[in-house]
Amino acid sequence: MSTTSSITEAAPLSLCAREPQVPADRLVAEMVPPPRFDSVRFDTYVPDPRQPSQTDAVKVLSEFATGLGGAHATGTGKRRWFAKKPAAPAGPRGVYLDGGYGVGKTHLLASLWHATPAAPEYKAFGTFVELTNLVGALGFQQTVRTLGGHRLLCIDEFELDDPGDTVLVSTLLGKLVDAGVALAATSNTLPGKLGEGRFAAADFLREIQGLSAHFRPLRIDGEDYRHRGLPEAPPPYSDEEVTKAAYATEGASLDGFPQLLEHLARVHPSRYGALTDGLRAVCLTGVEPVPDQSTALRLVVLADRLYDREVPVLASGLPFDRLFSDEMLNGGYRKKYFRAISRLTALARDAKGLVQQ
Hints:
- The protein has helices spanning 2-10, 24-29, 52-66, 71-74, 105-115, 128-138, 140-147, 163-178, 201-207, 239-248, 257-264, 272-275, 293-308, 326-329, 334-350, and strands at 94-98, 123-127, 152-158, 182-187, 215-219, 252-256, 281-287, 313-317.
- By secondary structure, the protein is of the alpha/beta class.
- A 5-stranded parallel β-sheet has the order 2-3-4-1-5, sandwiched between helices. A 3-stranded parallel β-sheet has the order 6-7-8.
- Strand 7, helix 13 (293-308) and strand 8 (313-317) form a beta-alpha-beta unit.
- The protein starts with a helix and ends in a 7-residue tail after the last helix.
């Protein structure tokens, strides 16, 4: 009896057993840089010496942050409806970080958030998906009122592959710019835009149409830093090794990969962050190719949330670079899938210490 009790107490968590509910006020409160980027700053960004555009980006963004000071940003009092609107600073009110995956765009975007002289409640940081989820939870007008008193809105991975959402968010940003909110964004690739695995600034500015004059494109060249000078990710482990590590690691979850993919279909992507609350590691058995694009896109969101929260991923089955079919990797969502592979590979490397040698 005592043995059974001990095993039960030591049993790992299960993502498939979680169905989190996320209230709207939590969505607003969590619009800050994710835990992985809590401590990043411009001086912790390490530019590749072979890529001068990275050093230039730090300088330009530092100056942009400095220019965002003022009473409206400090939290000393929101502008009253009858008060005179502060004069907008000269030059563009937004910056667009134009570069491929893994060049540190999110690090720089989070550094801009931290460097902007405003109280945290007057700055917002989130992915495009999180922003659209906020609009869905609050409604368009309430979102404008909620974010309209902010000094800065940072949008990571601006999704340009859904015309409807692009129009929605572009309209929202137009309202926020009118209210004096500064913008900063990175973007995703459009369907059919393959090339370098990056979305060209000219295409981004065309897609957001009326907002283009508010953005200064900032090109950031380079290779994926997550694998720059680092060893190859460990190969997948056996089911037995993964299961043993899950039981030996406090706060770890253990799920079959196919079952997890099925569960993700029942949980809205806006809740994937809450799905990972309190986890210290994710252990997956039986990793296999993702069966379809809808499932693949949900997995991309989960990979982003795990990476943001620095949750190691230990897995058996196929290596992560074989998750997506050739058709997917050559299709319109190519950049998303490569980003997911890159991030999951980094998390697999982080999980190496969970396996007892």
